[in-house]
Automatic annotation (TrEMBL):
Gene Ontology biological-process annotations: phosphorelay signal transduction system; regulation of DNA-templated transcription
Region (Disordered): 49-68
Protein name per UniProt: Transcriptional regulator
GO MF annotations, alphabetized: DNA binding
Assigned keywords, A-Z: DNA-binding, Transcription, Transcription regulation
Length: 435
């Protein structure tokens, strides 16, 4: 296989590949071993699906219906580009007896359109608007896996984790907010074996990029004069979007902007020094040098002194999560949470902010007891060892895989010398590459 993201290499026999994949799927579901020639992206997805407690004979459940579905559709950013999706993919889906589907960032299908006979067949596996098709709910599938990996993916026939989905082939690509980079959902094309062609994957990816371009035109960033957007969740080096520029910041500059965005009234030199450095021997000269370098990087108009402050509104992704949490919009807050705030930072004030934000969100998730939201957190890099969340998940989704992971985690954390609390403050984890 020359491209691991493409399901079938040119010249491959689809029928033979299906037979091989079904044997491999049976081996995995009975013995837990992945046999060749299963692609690495599929093997890893099968493993994630099993850890999430998905069974090969399971199915999707409908979470949104009637008024709830209509409201969620109307409020979702991808509603603005549905005409584009229909224009670019709708005819292709209808003529090829395929389906056009669009999901949100949690893998819930918002729109499923296309050939009527194909839609009726898809109804039998609950591939319908309002159903949840995330990896943690139904295992390996193109829209759910595209959202989980944040990249375009093609899933062919028996590569699907659930058996009743294996007659289908699909290709999907994530769609991002063009201003913040966060995943809004995915656009998908689902149908027969013909979609395993490499052109299908490239086509759906091009449609996703076209949608992002249109979103940028339809919804420019709502900023005041000179305003900026700061992305600092799930990444050690933040990105500042300012006046049409995307500026990659060093770790120290990231910490400074996070703190100044948090304190629009400004911070004195002594306050900023204490917030950034645990080492009391660091002098004000060091801080002034860092601020001078930051001012040269972002331009003189954004950073003022006496006190140190930002002269324009800076919208931080961390602030977005906080605001949604305070409003009680838990699902929306979880969607916006891309990971711990500057996870590698040891700056005292950043560590406190990181803990407060993560603890606030996870506490709300535990109290809410939504199994899918808990599963999303538990299977994220920052939640793999979160004992309290795994206990909460086991209480509402007591499947064997979840119980086994909880038992292993309790044994591991009970070992001598191991902490029993959730160690986020200075923890590091595998991060996704910057958008």
């Amino acid at each position: 296989m020359t491209d691991p993201w493409v399901a079938l290499e040119p010249g491959a026999d689809p029928a033979e590949r299906v037979r091989v994949l079904r044997r491999a799927h049976e081996t995995f579901t009975t013995a837990g071993e992945v046999a060749r020639p299963v692609r690495s992206v599929v093997a890893e997805s099968w493993q994630r699906s099993a850890r999430a407690g998905v069974g090969p004979d399971g199915g999707a459940s409908v979470e949104l219906s009637d008024g709830d579905l209509g409201t969620h559709r109307a409020e979702h950013p991808l509603a603005r580009v549905m005409p584009l999706f229909r224009e670019l993919l709708g005819t292709f889906a209808a003529d090829g007896e395929h389906l056009l589907a669009v999901c949100d960032a949690h893998g819930r299908l918002l729109w499923v359109e296309g050939h009527p006979a194909t839609r009726r067949r898809a109804d039998g596996m609950n591939f319908v608007p309002g159903a949840r098709w995330s990896e943690t709910a139904v295992g390996t599938n193109a829209p759910g896996t595209a959202v989980a990996l944040d990249r375009p993916v093609q899933v062919f026939a028996a590569e699907h984790f659930i058996r009743r989905v294996q007659p289908w082939t699909c290709a999907a690509a994530p769609v991002h907010d063009p201003h913040t980079g966060r995943v809004l959902g995915a656009v998908d094309i689902t149908g027969g074996d013909g979609l395993a062609h490499p052109h299908s994957l490239g086509f759906v990816q091009a449609v996703a990029r076209a949608a992002e371009s249109q979103l940028a035109l339809l919804a420019p960033p709502r900023l005041g004069d000179g305003g900026a957007l700061l992305s600092a969740l799930g990444r050690d080096e933040a990105e500042l979007r300012l006046d049409g520029r995307r500026i990659r910041l060093s770790r120290r500059h990231s910490e400074i902007l996070v703190l100044l965005a948090r304190h629009p009234e400004g911070l004195s030199g002594d306050e900023l020094l204490c917030a950034l450095y645990a080492d009391e021997s660091v002098t004000p000269v060091t801080l002034r040098a860092e601020l001078a370098r930051l001012r040269r990087l972002v331009g003189p108009g954004l950073l003022a002194s006496r006190p140190y402050r930002l002269t324009a509104a800076v919208e931080s992704d961390a602030t977005v999560v906080e605001r949604r949490l305070e409003a009680g919009a838990l699902m929306s807050a979880a969607e916006a949470y891309a990971g711990p705030l500057l996870p590698g930072s040891q700056a005292p004030a950043v560590v406190r902010l990181r803990r407060r934000l993560a603890d606030g969100l996870r506490t709300a998730l535990i109290a809410h007891r939504d199994p899918d939201l808990l599963a999303d957190w538990a299977h994220a890099p920052w939640g793999e060892d979160d004992l309290e969340v795994w206990r909460a998940l086991a209480a509402v989704r007591p499947v064997p895989a979840v119980r086994a992971r909880l038992a292993a985690l309790e044994t591991e954390l009970a070992a001598p010398g191991r902490p029993v609390s959730w160690p986020l403050g200075g923890a590091t984890y595998l991060q996704r590459p910057p958008a």
